[in-house]
Amino acid sequence: MSTKQVTIQTLRQMKERGEKIAMLTAYDATFARLLDDAGTDVLLVGDSLGMVVQGHATTLPVTLEEIAYHCRAVVRGAKRAHVVGDMPFMSYQASHEQGVTNAGKLMKDGGCHSVKLEGGAVHAELVHRLVTAGIPVMGHIGLTPQSYHQLGGFKVQGRDIGGRERLLSDARTLEEAGAYSIVLEAIPADIAREITAAVSIPTIGIGAGTGCDGQVLVSYDALGMDESFKPRFVRRYETLGAKIKEAISHYVSDVRTGAFPSDAESFSVAENKATPTAMDQVYSTVGKK
Ligand code: KIV
Fold first, then answer.
1. Cβ count within 10 A of residue 69
2. Quick check: 83 and 112 in contact, CB under 8 A?
3. By the 8 A CB rule, do 240 and 223 touch?
4. Does residue 232 lie within any of the structural domains?
């Protein structure tokens, strides 16, 4: 695997070569470093952070400043991956001017490499303006969680009459407007496959079957952080929720019994006299990488 920074051109070439794109969400520097080291091509600072980090029931309360804050952390942790900043609810819906200004803020203040916004043809003009301004845009169609109340919940999209045509036309319009990629969320696998064949930009599926050019999952779901959340489209690659609880209950018990810390995990005056400078450097993160 090349260590060169992944760009929107890399992603396009991956589609052309038939190489699948691996994308995950990331919200902080430590996770970004781990996901990047493991070869993830794209890190999305998704507004899903409203649910998995902030504990809201939907993504609607997330603000532009919060996404920018998490983008800065992720950009610091990532070396190779392309970092996408999610445009949160009502940061681009009111006007094109507002959309361009806010996407610019996310790039300047957050340091992300591109932005993602939800919606199809209705945002084509905005996508065109952003791309003209030098801001690469990833589209997102199908289940668009910011329209939770409009859609009546987190429901599979495109099953109704006309759904297939609407999704196909949205994807084509986003490509024509200049989007470099499109997320297809919670749509039937055969429609996702058809869209993927119909556009020359990469499609990234979540709950959209295997026919997409890449896949994305919320990293907390892929790692099984929430034992009570397991929708059909999620594959858990770990059960970190259970493992974290087990490790922490061990720590709590060690603290209560006095088993932690041990002498080896403590400092002493005698030790300091023997090596006078050692005590000053309790730990160092400088030059750690
Ligand atoms: O916010 C997010 O995490 C997303 C992905 C699920 C695609 O939009």
1. 15
2. yes
3. yes
4. no
Q: Which pLDDT score is estimated for 283?
A: 67
Give me the DSSP letters along 225-281.
--TT---TT---S--HHHHHHHHHHHHHHHHHHT-SS-GGGS--HHHHHHSTTGGG-
Tokens matching residue 89: 């609810």
Could you tell me the distance, in angstroms and rounded to a whole number, from the CA of residue 87 to the centre of ligand 1?
11
Q: What is the 46 CA–ligand 1 centroid distance (Å)?
A: 5
49: tokens are 């952070």
The number of distinct structural domains making up the chain is: 2
What residue type is 50 in one-letter code? G
Structure token digits, residue 288:
């750690």
Q: Per the confidence metrics, is the pTM higher than 0.90?
A: yes
What does the pLDDT look like over 192-222, one tens digit per residue? 999 999 999 999 999 999 999 999 999 999 9
The predicted-structure confidence for 250-272, as pLDDT tens digits, reads as follows: 999 999 999 999 999 999 988 76
What is the rounded CA–CA span in Å between residue 169 and residue 195? Answer: 9
Q: Does 231 map to a domain?
A: no
Instruction: Encode pLDDT of 2-56 as tens digits.
Output: 889 999 999 999 999 999 999 999 999 999 999 999 999 999 999 999 999 999 9
Q: By the 8 A CB rule, do 164 and 158 touch?
A: yes
Write down which residue in 222, 238, 271 finishes a domain: 222
Active site residue 16: no
Catalytic residue among 66, 118, 175, 185: 185
Domain range for 274: 247-286
Q: Which residue has the tokens 């060690």?
A: 254
Alpha-carbon gap, residue 263 to 283, rounded angstroms = 17
Nearest protein CA to atom 5 of ligand 1, as residue:
46
Angle at CA of residue 214, ends 114 and 144, nearest 5°: 65
Q: What lines the ligand 1 site, CB under 6 Å?
A: 25, 44, 46-48, 86, 183, 185, 206, 216, 218
